[in-house]
Amino acid sequence: MNDSPKKPDQRRGWLRLIAFFIIPALFIFAANRLLLQTDAHSYYMMLEMTHRDDIDMALVGSSVVAYNIDPEVLTEKTGLTAFDVSVGTMGLPSSIAVTRQLFATNSPQIVVLVLDPNTLTSPEEDIQAQLRVFSFIKNPIERLTYTLDLMMQDGQFLDRLLLFKSQPVTSLADIRKNIEIRVDPQGYAERNTLDEGPVSYHGRGRVRVNLTPRKGKLLRETSIRPFTVTRQKGLYPYTQRKLLAFRKLCEENGARLLVMFGPDLTAHRLATGGYADKYTAVAAFCRENGIDFYDFSIARPEFIPRMDDYFYDLYHMNYEGSQLFSEKLGEFFALYLACEPVDQLFYASQQDYIEHIDFITNTWVTGETQGDLLVLTAGCNTGPGVTPEYRFTLVTADGTETELRGYSEESICSVSCEALSCGGTIVVYARPKNDPGQNPVFYEYPL
Amino acid sequence: MSTYTLLYTLLAAAVLYYICPLRLRGVFLLIFSYVLYAQNGKQALAFILLTTLSTWAGALLIGRIGARGKALLQARRAELSAEEKKRLKQRTKGRQRVVFWLVLLLNFGLLAVLKYVPTLPGTLARSLFGLMGRADAAPALRLFVPLGISFYTFQSMGYLIDVYNGKYAPERNPARFALFISFFPQLIQGPIARYDALGPQLTTPHRLDVDNIRRGLMLMLWGFFKKKVIADRALPMVDAVFGNPGQYGGAVIAAAVLMYSLQQYADFSGGIDLVTGGAELMGIHLAPNFKRPYFSVSLGDFWRRWHISLGAWMRDYVFYPFALTRPVSRLSKAAKNRFGTDFGRALPAALGNILVFLLVGVWHGATGNYVAWGLYNGLILALSALLESAYKRFGEHHAALVKSRGYYVFRVLRTFLIVNIGWYFDRCAHLSDAFSMLLRTFTQPMFSQLTDGTLLTLGITGAGFAILAASTVILFAVSAMQERGIGVRSYVLSRKLPVRWALLYAMILFVMLFYVPNALTGFIYAAF
Cβ contacts (< 8 Å) between A8 and chain B: which residues? Predict the structure, then answer.
């Protein structure tokens, strides 16, 4: 074994050691700016937000804000300049960090914190949110405390330091984009129109989804089915702390705070055991802590019609749906800000809402071969007071639909394999037994 | 404790250590160790305190009995006969022995109850209840097992045995002793330290030294590389194959065993490097626990290079005392008379090895696979001991061959094969799985699974395999350097600055780019 080298002069050794770490630090600094993919929508939202000083109403939240709420409609309805402070996957820690940046240049009268239930299923902040928000936190101390807070929460301190590893650039074009968008954001916006496929950025944090409505198609194709998620009941202590911190931030900056949930797919709360718990927990927490809270997922149908058909994925509405919801939200705020009563627009609780569900959200069927029979078992998500009845048909390649069995409460239908030998698609229809006039929902099961 | 948590705990501790005034640095370490350990709950704290206090008090009492006996002997030397002096010494030793065994049984008994009672074979529990016609009512006993209990129990009992044997005087200061037991870097997975080597280091305040910082950080980087680039990357394949062995042919099983040999080594030694490097930041030098075990030329050599501190503990406190007991000596004599001198001389070592490895197997877990693994190693070592004289004669007759490079390579590969066969038993959850996987390795290889894409369904991508291969080459190169007596850290630090920095930056970049993210996996040996 070699002897240790001659002991270095301490002072020179320390200077070299410090100098040694400067290069990796610079590399990480540069990599976290140039080598991770820039989310253009978040970038432009933040840029616009920090260059404005006229925001009266800020809607803060994840992508559900940008996609589902049109600030221009809110402005029209309330007279307040509204702005979507929206960053994809953003949870409470990042919402606080971003809202601080908002208050640095704006003095909104009201801040609307739009909670996304998906960000409440774990106390840990998605790393995607961090890498989108990080570079916009101007104050280095704030940046450090924000990052340390996230690291301490989930222990992933290296992953949160080396952000570029989470969403690295995949081509030189990505690096070029990173440089251009920072050096000449206006020029980049003009050259690229910020259209990224079916979505486009429209200013004021708004993202427009250009897909055509998919009435019922999402639920048919996605087929949200019952399952139970084992999660901690109630709110995590960390989540509670963050909600209180958010309230404090608004109070310190003279802004009213309103916490809300937006509309979501009804099927979620019917299919997923424990799904509604988070809503109930937030409602109770806000009540206990004197925070205004409204749950638009349980708005009465006379106020906001069922929005299920306007969702193009599990959480985001298409343009038509977002316009409709924004109109209703604007009406709500007009009343709320005028101190008019608004409680009557909502059901009293998630449970109350569920009990009033008198429709079937979606249906599905599974098939199992037993001997020479194909045993079809249908299921559906529906309110507790609804008795579903099912109808089974066979649609052949030429479009001919033959009924295999008429409407019945019986969810199982056995068909001989011989009868299905020509192929085609099994279609199951489901409707409420006590309201046969309702349009049935259906599901296609290709043979 | 995840790798990240260990890493930042060590770094934070080092920073706080040097912020503390010099004379309070030992106190800081004690408080920090206990505060950290208390995160595991009050029960865990209570158990470690029980072991600490009982061992400290027991050792002190043993020391006092010995000192009193000595003083009495000294005072009455002139008036006592030789027989009376002998009886006095025996009485003193007898009293010491009572205290010794009480403390030993208390602590090892606690370890046995907490670790092994809940894992009484289900069949045994069910059998007992079955006799009463209520097999289904066999309870599943759940007991709290404090983190690191094996390690700190072994460490404290080693101290007790040393004091009892008069190796050194007992520590009078309970705080110093408490720090020795609870010193946080080594609590999870060792190394198991000796009091005379570690104790003084902990309480001697260390000044900030840039050389310690550099060397400590380098070792931590190396440990992080092994754990997060190699071990965590290899883990999915090992879990996939061992979790569902019936699905794979012998070739894939063999590949998984090789992967396990890499993963286990990288995980364990990587964790030890992190811990050793972290301690070095504070000027504390822990004994090495690994010495390139896969370069071993025999199974005995392997166990002197793998988990060195446990091997040394077993050697000093189990093997030698056992081999030197009267019954074993008598047996050795009888064997000498019947089977010859060589056999008789080797028999105590052979029996000692079987006992030691049975204990090591049980230490891993009181299940069939671990017992089999222990017996497997013990029997091979026993056989080696008994055949030692034959090996020596072979060496004398074929000196050139034995000294040749080819023979060295043969021995290394042979040892690697023997060790890997043992890993079948070590890694499988059930003994029957181990046998069936071993059988299938040789009887149903299904070589096509190595090339038909099966390997890519085991949780490692093609790129992942490439990174593993490159990392293994780096690991091998560094190990080969060390095997030739080159201290790698010293080698790097002695290069010119640009070369030194280039090597270190290359390593840092490699680790940054290829460490397995989002995997908050702990360490394998923390479970023991």
Answer: 210-211
pLDDT at A339: 94
Given an 8 Å threshold on Cβ–Cβ distance, is B209 in contact with A10? yes
User: How many separate domains does chain A show?
Assistant: 2
What range does the domain containing A242 cover? 28-354
Q: Is residue A350 part of a domain?
A: yes
> Mean pLDDT across chain A, nearest whole number?
87
Nearest CA in chain A to B498: A20
3-state SS string over B4-40? Answer: HHHHHHHHHHHHHHHHCCHHHHHHHHHHHHHHHHHCC
DSSP three-state, residue B302: helix
Query: Using a CB-CB distance cutoff of 8 angstroms, which residues of chain B are in contact with residue A23?
Result: 501, 505
Nearest partner of B504 among B487, B515, B491, judged by Cα = B491
Q: Which residues of A touch B274 (CB under 8 A)?
A: none
Integer Cα distance of A118 and A278 in angstroms: 9
Q: For residue B223, is pLDDT > 60?
A: yes
Among candidates A1, A10, A165 on the partner chain, residue whose Cβ is nearest the Cβ of B210: A10
Q: Which residues of chain A neighbour B491 with C-beta distances below 8 Å?
A: 2
Judgement on whether residues A337 and A368 belong to the same structural domain of the protein: no
Task: With CB atoms and an 8 Å threshold, state whether B4 touches A4.
Answer: no
pLDDT tens track for A309-335: 888 888 888 888 999 999 999 999 999
User: Is residue A188 domain-shared with residue A266, that is, in the same domain?
Assistant: yes
pLDDT > 90? residue A423? no
Kindly state whether residue A11 falls inside one of the protein's structural domains: no
pLDDT of A2 reads 44
Question: Tell me, what's the pLDDT at A6?
Answer: 52
Same domain, yes or no: A286 and A230: yes
Same-domain check for residues A285 and A397: no
Q: Give domain status of residue A312, yes or no.
A: yes
Peptide bond into B191 cis (omega under 30): yes
